[in-house]
Amino acid sequence: MALILSLIIVLSFIFLFFYKYQPAIPGALGTLGVFGVFIYLCTYIQPVIQGEKVIEAVSWVPELKVDIGFYLDGLSLFFALLISLFGAFILLYSIEYMKGKPKANRFFFYLFIFLASMLGLVLADHVILLYVFWEMTSISSYFLISYNNHKKKARRAALQALLITNLGGLALFVGLLLLGHQCGSFHLSAIIQNGQTLAGMSTIILLILIGCFTKSAQFPFHFWLPNAMAAPSPVSAYLHSATMVKAGVFLVMRLNPVFSTDIMWQVSLLAIGSITMVLGAIKAVKAFDLKSILASITISTLGVLMALIGVGSDLALQGALLYLAVHALYKAALFLVAGNVDRQTGTRDLRKLSGLYRNMPFTTCAALLAGLAFAGLPPVLGFVVKEKLYEALLGGEEYLYWFLIVFIITNAIYFMLAVKLTYDLFFGKSVLSQAVKEVSVIMWGPPVFLSLMGLLFGIGGAHFESFFTVAAETTMNKRGAREIDLSLWHGFNTAFILSGITWLIGLAFYVGESKFRRLAEITKLFSLDHAYRSILHHLQSFTYVVTRFFQHGFLTRYLKVIFVVPIVMLSWIYMEGKLFSEIHFDNWKSSFSEVYAFFPLLLIFTGTLFILRTSSRLRILVCLSLVGYGIALFYAVFSAPDVSMTQFLVETITLVIFTIVLNRMPKSASFPLEPRKVLIAGVSIAFGIIITCILISVQQYPLNPALKDFYIQHSVPRGHGENVVNVMLVDFRAFDTFGEMVVLSMTALGVVALINLKSKEDKL
Questions:
Q1: For position 174, what pLDDT does the model report?
Q2: What does the pLDDT look like over 289-310, one tens digit per residue?
Q3: What Cα–Cα distance (Å) separates residue 471 from each residue in 120, 192, 311, 367, 476?
Q4: How far apart are the first and last CA of the chain?
């Protein structure tokens, strides 16, 4: 599995660096590579059907027992197949769609990183690794949504998606850590295979559900998804069909065996899913933009999936998995159809579009087949799955009948919308003034193939029953569930009658669309987009006030805060632990037994005294250097000649540089008033006293010579140097030193950039 992710990341860099020179070669390599990943994953279908599970682990952070572990079972394989197959077709479509557009190489780079992140998410075994990939999907989707970053709408939508999903991601991270601690293992395979249920863990459930609800656009976090339509059509198709918004559904399905017996888990999924299902469907009714309609339908469908998991019966869970596959197929096809229409006509407004079948026959074919699945009509898989869901809801508890009624109405709305997206869009009298042509085969081929797959699964579903059964079984807290029946025809039973009622209600909605649209305006009451913007505005105002309070620009205030905080904390520690009474000056008496040990003290005292009494900048600078040279003499007195030489060099260079700087500063100088001087002196003296106490306390404890002896013994044979300090810095602690060099280099580059920026502004 790690090899698959590595391959995709390598392909992403090929696109990034070579696409702009020769687009055809990276395009072909990328499409074949991702499709090859799909073929490779197909080889695991038969072993998974036979009950095998693949677990791979490579040590990552052994001290924290974190490894790069992957877990392949029916559920993860199902999602991985969807991600790779749809990724191949979306990539193929994007090659033509993005032709001639600026920064297309970055687009493909982000797309590949997103694909790798989604695969890593569904295949991850360790919860920390899962969270890493979870956040990677948020970051890469941010760049994809904001591809048209010259538009304010795209930037705002990308930021909104990032903030909301990251907020949920933080909650999810805490929930996963608590889950791992509670179960005694941070590996999902161990948590699930142990069959342990965690009923009653309300905090863990709440945190995990918040993460899943934000990612899968559940109420009240649903408003970010329609705004994400600012992304290019291929991105919308991929995000809405098999990837990002399905991540939350995947994790809920993955953890359902652990929490399925908890009433909070069931009620939360059923309630929030039902609300989201209804709001999304009604919101789609009042929209005219093709992508907005499809985005709202996605929200509704995600609500259906969450609610079905909350129902919890075997049939409901099997139906949820099948419904997810159906939605992925028709939704990807419809989004690509919308991209074709937008590209050729220049608009996505349904009020301005009609009669496109004459000029776009292949796109029309894809829309019709996808519309059949969307409406739940035979002979596509959508019809089979809809009846399967009706069957699951018919024999349950009494409250499920209310959900069944709402579900029938929602499906009727889907039927109405399917008619609008097919008949109204492609048939009738053309209202466009300009001539419209069919797109190339690279752009109509993927939606046609994806919609044909729905027909193939509907007619030949019996050949895929075993795999779907095994995949659905992993979402249950038991084994040995009955096999899914994907037969196209089950006779004139209750489920079929309900299907007929659904179609009739859908036709009634279509005929009375204008009245129904006015009723749909009620969803404005549940739109939290304005609330989000208001919260963000007040948060920005609050942060501005806080920043102005703490980042006021006065260096002396910063220094006072920096020194006062440790003074207070360390003084409290000394008083609480009664450590002042344990301080003894015996070691210090022996240190200053020689007369020459007082010369550095005299230098430091003299320099400090003149600093307090003088008002000349140059004198202050000289006195500070005097203090520095006194400290350097201290190092020499206490047998540290190398440190002493370093201090002498630093003080000399500092004196020269500061002298040059003083020459360029204004001649007038303002110094603190006397009360402020007293405060500064008090803080300085207190800080000096507390540091002195710490040093004395440390000296009272015997030092372990093991580390010192190690460096002395290995300095020459392993570091090839007799200067132990130098060997430590450049050999034993090379990475630490390298890190410091990098930080200093970055700081220098930042200073140079600011100077150049200021110079350019002055010229303007």
A1: 92
A2: 888 889 889 999 999 999 999 8
A3: 18, 14, 18, 29, 10
A4: 55
Strand 54-61 versus strand 66-72 pairing type: antiparallel
β-sheet bridge partners, residue 187? 126
**What pLDDT, on the 0 to 100 scale, is given for residue 461?**
74
Mean pLDDT to the nearest integer, 529-541: 84
Which are the contacts of 512, defined by CB distance < 8 A and separation ≥ 6? none
Q: pLDDT-based confidence at 81, cuts 50/70/90?
A: very high
Containing H/E element for 648?
Answer: helix 641-664
Q: Which residues pair with 68 in a beta bridge?
A: 58
By three-state DSSP, how is residue 582 classified?
Answer: helix
Burial 122-148 (b: 16+ CB within 10 A, else e): bbbbbbbbbbbbbbbbbbbbbbbbbbb
Instruction: Look up residue 341 and give its amino acid.
Output: V
| Rounded (5°) CA angle 144-148-154 | 80
CB 350 within 8 A of CB 428: no
699 pLDDT exceeds 60? yes
Residue 500 to residue 246: CA distance in whole angstroms: 29
| Encoded tokens for 568 | 């207070």
Say how far apart CA 267 and CA 280 lie, in whole Å.
Answer: 20
Q: Which residues contact 17 (CB under 8 A, 6 or more apart)?
A: 105
Q: Compute the half-sphere exposure of residue 221: CA atoms within 13 Å on the CB side of its CA.
A: 25
The two structure tokens encoding residue 759: 């110079």
Mean of pLDDT values over 380-397: 84
Mean pLDDT of 476-486: 71
Q: What share of the chain is helix, strand, coil (3-state, %, to 5)?
A: 75, 5, 20
Q: Inform me whether the pLDDT recorded for 545 exceeds 70.
A: yes
Q: How far apart are CA 111 and CA 105, in angstroms?
A: 10
Do 287 and 314 meet the contact criterion of CB atoms below 8 Å apart? Answer: no
- 582 sits in the region (left: phi over 0; alpha: psi -120 to 50; else beta) called alpha
34-42 average pLDDT score: 90
